[in-house]
Amino acid sequence: MFALLRAIFISMSLLDENIKKIAAEAAEKNNFFLIDFIARGNNNARIYEIFIDGENDVSADDCAKISREISLIVELLPESNAISRLDISSPGVDRPLKFLKQYPKHINRNFEVSYKKNDETKKLSAKLVQVNGEVLVFSSKNQEIEINFNNITKAKVTVSFS
Predict the structure, then answer these.
(1) Of the candidates 12, 30, 59, 136, which lies 20 to 30 Å from 23 by C-alpha distance?
(2) What is the pTM of this model?
(3) What is the CATH number of domain 2-89?
(4) CB burial of residue 149 (10 Å; 0-12, 13-18, 19+)
């Protein structure tokens, strides 16, 4: 019984990895990049949530196109009958930014940023005003704060309704 469970787990892991790779390639082909990949469910009903982003905004049409491309390839996999749902979307403002290349399109937007400085975690609410290589420049209370991307532990765009 243990061997059967192990084989099922390995099979699902391989399916997950294959779909993740297919999603990353489809995103890249369309000038986007994979932000997050969530696989859940059991071996009879796998649900995949795939989040893509780009240097420009991601539209619903972009997500639909990439979804169709992924689905065409996934249908050829022997385990494709285990997939019950495949969702492709942009990360939205509620998700933290993960990659440096996500920041330039958010210049002049407000952020909540947590970052490390001298072994201490600091928090900042500020507007992103510039991206210089790996250095992000934020403005808060008429003061500019430079933070190296590698020191950021969490950064989210904040939405204001003013």
Answers:
(1) 136
(2) 0.79
(3) 3.30.300.70
(4) middle
